[in-house]
Design brief:
Elements: H1 7-27, H2 36-49, E1 65-68, E2 85-88, H3 106-116, H4 123-136, H5 144-180
Antiparallel strand pairs: 1-2
């Protein structure tokens, strides 16, 4: 539940909806992890492929969340696709930002989590399991042009939604001034 909604929230939601549809385009069918076959596939990834354990720290939990390995946003534009989702505990589902304000990669995050737990020897195996999920579920290997096209569209969509939201607010203010006040 959001405590405070911003114009950026609606823009980010639009970008995630776009990335969901691109993921479904490559997958060839709907991938709704909240119901039906998509939910069953998510449970299979969580419970069978990762044995009910967080992909980063390895702890078993019945409260695992969906983590998009390639982040589901306008800068990393990871697709909502079975190959790009892994189970993650709440504690591990927070990536730190780097000096340039970008989020660290999933590989950097995995190393950080394992190092903080004194489990450096587990990095390679956990990384292989995550990479295996990309391969098993045939996550599309996008070429540079495809990635650039998705990035351009996602950025444009984000900016357009923010602009339309601001225009709507300004229109409301004008209508309020003309008809209400």
């Amino acid at each position: 539940m959001a405590v405070y909604n911003t114009m950026s929230d609606s823009a980010n939601t639009a970008v995630r909806a776009f990335l969901t549809k691109v993921g479904e385009y490559y997958l060839g069918h709907s991938f709704n992890t909240g119901s039906g076959k998509g939910k069953a596939l998510w449970f299979s990834i969580r419970d069978e492929d990762f044995e009910g354990c967080c992909a980063y720290c390895g702890e078993k939990s019945d409260q695992l969340q969906i983590e998009h390995v390639l982040m589901f946003n306008r800068t990393e534009f990871g697709l909502h696709h079975p190959g790009n989702i892994i189970p993650c505990c709440k504690r591990c589902n927070k990536r730190e930002r780097l000096r340039d304000k970008a989020y660290c990669s999933w590989e950097q995050h995995l190393v950080k989590v394992c190092e903080s737990r004194g489990e450096i020897s587990k990095i390679k195996g956990r990384k292989q399991k995550i990479l295996g999920n990309f391969k098993k579920h045939k996550y599309p290997e996008l070429n540079v042009n495809e990635k650039n096209a998705i990035g351009v569209i996602a950025s444009s969509l984000y900016e357009n939604i923010k602009t339309e939201s601001e225009k709507s607010l300004n229109l409301y203010k004008q209508l309020d001034k003309a008809f209400v006040q």
